[in-house]
Amino acid sequence: MDFCLSRAEEMWQRAVREFAEREVRPRVRELDDAGELPRDLVKRMGSLGYLGVVTPEEYGGAGMSHVARLVMVEELSKVYPPFGFFFQAAHLAIYAIQKYGTEEQKRKYLPSLVSGDAISCMAVTEQTGGSDPANMSTVATREGDGWVINGRKVFITLAGVADVCAVLAKTGERAYSIFIVENGTPGFSVVRRESHMGMRSIPVSEIAFEDCRVSKESLLGQEGRGLGAALAVIAEIGRTGAVGVALGISGGTLEAAVKFAKQRELYGKPISELQGIQFTLADMDTNYHAARLLGYLPSWLLDQGKTGREVSKEISRAKAFACDVAISNATKAIQIHGACGTTPEYGMGRRLADAIELLAAGGTQEVMKVTIARGLLA
Amino acid sequence: MNGLPRIAVLLKQVPHPDYFDRIAIDPEKLVIRREGIPTATNPLDKVALEVALRARETLPRGTEVHAFSMGPPAARETLDEALAMGADQGFLLCDRAFAGADTLATAKALATALSRFGHYSLIAAGAETVDGGTGQVPPQVAEFLGVAHVTSAISLSVKACSGGGWCAVVDQRVERGRLSLKVKLPAVISFGRGAAEPRIPSALDVVRGARKPVKVLTLRELGLLPEDVGLAGSPTRVIGLSEVGRARRAGGEVFSGKASEAVSVALKRLKELGAL
């Protein structure tokens, strides 16, 4: 067995870590307080290739592995989880276009999306929930040479700032298709920005399509095969991204707790010398590394050529466990920080709020367990 | 007609500055215990690399920047970092015989490698390391190579000399300003703080960097003898090592009154104590 990162992945890990420490950490408090997507940093991360990490070089990307993407999301999330969350969402449509798009669609959209000049989102979830697409109400009907979309989508991460939206709509009985809708298309609107307790700098919005006309060239992938394609993208990018964010929160809060425990003195010595604190740190460390072992496996399997469908059980295990660990480690870090734990200066409370946001991202914990059980009982 | 200049950069892997609180001294061997401490590339060496990479952009196409490091196998990480930043090739001097080298033995090994594997016009390095902090290696390398050296430079431009060959124009920070120097290459130039901000590699930089080679150079390949290098080749012997206590002393003196008067009294007292 080889648990090592490749030479390129190790080099990448150091590069992302350096970016996060030098350019993100000094701005964490400001970003948390502002609650807005910092376009300057998005552009900067685009210039560093973060948006195109798994996109082929011919479309402006770096063509790296899924493991490299996970490394990147984890390292960014150790310092500032909303940035990991940004990539969990921003990579969805990019990946969908590179995987299912026509050559023309790839040439048209990918270069600007991977450079950070444009941002994309993917719209699947409706009021009925993201895990019940059969009851989806958004429909696309053929009209003339194109399509007309009607319906509403909720909890769409990055909608409101996205220039391009990949939307899943019903195109027939048990038939679903994905369409690329550009911001500014008549009939496409952002209804409202939703308010969430965590990931405050990443906008999540409700969007509406009212007689929104798009050309036939907007169809992404095969007509009627959109649900399978969307689920594959959600599994391979969305859920693995959530795993990376969860790992980052687990590792980042552990690092913060260790640092604080060594500095904070009580009874004339650092609290790190108290066995009660040591046990908590040891539990945090063990759970973090257990989550990493579970978490890196599905991305590695994807790099070996497996599909999201083939590794759905591994992805579900990783997501369910890593999210629980993220919440647990953030909570324990707050406890170790004592009264400082919930202050914005130390940011641990905000990291807990970020971790809680992951519970529903890309599917709830319960949906993950249903997937695992389905595999067991098949 | 000038041939293409060649640039070498010397880089050292050091304990990560964020973890200096974990460094301990081995009381018997009188060496710093570095086990388990994360490592990093010496920050000023990365500054030197950045300066060299920017100089390459102003020089004719085909000019190469080579990265050299001496250390254990793990020091390859430092060369990988340099390759991701844009260096063209890495050379790692790695042999158990090199262990325990002082600055002179380090410089001797590096100078041998530099003269054996390329005729470098410019050899750039950090002015000092965060662990040893002697600043001796770059001038010693220059002495071994028999070339000029400039220390603690803060800028660099490489130009064709009027009489042929290549020249470097460098600025040095001195007490009351800057000193501009023109040096005929080859030369060793060490760079200090503020010379450049090291770049952060992009994803594509990393992908390309990972395709570049790192050549490992052993004692045999350098043609040196065991007594020339490492502990055996080091005239320096550490006879004592102690930690400087940083505990605050209780008490202290308070100077009250007008600020200007209090400062004068405080300065006088500091002079009496020999602190100024």
How would you describe this structure to a colleague?
The complex is a heterodimer of chains A (378) and B (276). Chain A is an alpha+beta fold. Chain A is 52% helix and 16% strand. Chain A is built from eleven helices and ten strands. In chain A, the strands form three sheets. In chain A, strands 1-4-5-8 form a four-stranded mixed sheet, covered by helices on one side. In chain A, strands 2-3-7-6 form a four-stranded antiparallel sheet, covered by helices on one side. In chain A, β4 and β5 form a beta hairpin. The longest helix of chain A has 38 residues. Chain A is globular, with a radius of gyration of 21 Å. Chain A starts with 6 loop residues before the first helix and ends with a helix. Chain B has 276 residues and is α/β, with parallel strands linked by helices. Chain B has seven helices and 13 strands. In chain B, the strands form three sheets. A nine-stranded mixed sheet of chain B has the order 11-10-9-12-8-1-6-7-13, with helices on both faces. In chain B, a hairpin with a 5-residue loop joins β9 and β10. In chain B, α2 crosses α5 and α3 packs across α4. The N and C termini of chain B lie far apart (56 Å). The model of chain B has no long low-confidence stretch (mean pLDDT 91).
